[in-house]
Amino acid sequence: MPAKSSAVDKARAALTEQIAALDADRDQLQRALDQLGGAPARRGRPRGSSRSKRSTGGGGRGTPRRDQALRLIKANPGIRPSELARKMGVAAPYIYRVVPPLIEEGKVRKEGKGFTAA
């Protein structure tokens, strides 16, 4: 049974890191809203929205993080994922959700253990 327990522990750790990354994103957005003098952020989905109506594609979702990653990669050629995560203020595994679309779009390429702008 150790293999199953190990897999569960790995899955739990991955989910914990993803939640931490989302919490960091929410905190950053809340600070930005506070600086703009906005109202407190509502929790949950906006009224009238439903899961079935939401897009699952990459249209606007994640775009600010991708832009931030691209700027950092351009400014730091050969930057490693761990360093990129540190500069972005996110957990390292989150980088592997942000960067692959940039690679697919031809904006970034993997060189050795780091990323470089294409």
Summarize the structure.
The protein is mainly alpha-helical and 118 residues long. It has a single domain, classed as Winged helix-like DNA-binding domain superfamily/Winged helix DNA-binding domain (Arc Repressor Mutant, subunit A, Orthogonal Bundle), CATH 1.10.10.10. It has helices spanning 2-35, 63-75, 81-88, 92-104, and strands at residues 108-111, 114-117.
Describe the structure.
The protein contains 4 helices and 2 strands; from the N terminus they run ααααββ. It is mostly helical. The chain has one domain (2-40, 61-117): Orthogonal Bundle (Arc Repressor Mutant, subunit A). Strands 1-2 form a two-stranded antiparallel ribbon. The model is unreliable at 52-58 (pLDDT under 50).
Give the overall form.
Answer: flat
Largest sheet: 2 strands, antiparallel
CATH domain class name? Mainly Alpha
CATH superfamily: Winged helix-like DNA-binding domain superfamily/Winged helix DNA-binding domain
Radius of gyration over alpha carbons? 17 Å
CATH topology, which one?
Arc Repressor Mutant, subunit A
Terminal Cα separation, in Å? 46 Å
Q: Residue-averaged pLDDT, rounded?
A: 79
Give the % helix. Answer: 55-70%
Pick out its properties.
118 residues, mainly alpha, Arc Repressor Mutant, subunit A, two-stranded antiparallel ribbon, 4 helices, 2 strands, 7% strand
What order do the helices and strands come in, and which of them pair?
Blueprint (H helix, E strand, L loop, with lengths): L1 H34 L27 H13 L5 H8 L3 H13 L3 E4 L2 E4 L1
Helix pairs in contact: 2-4, 3-4
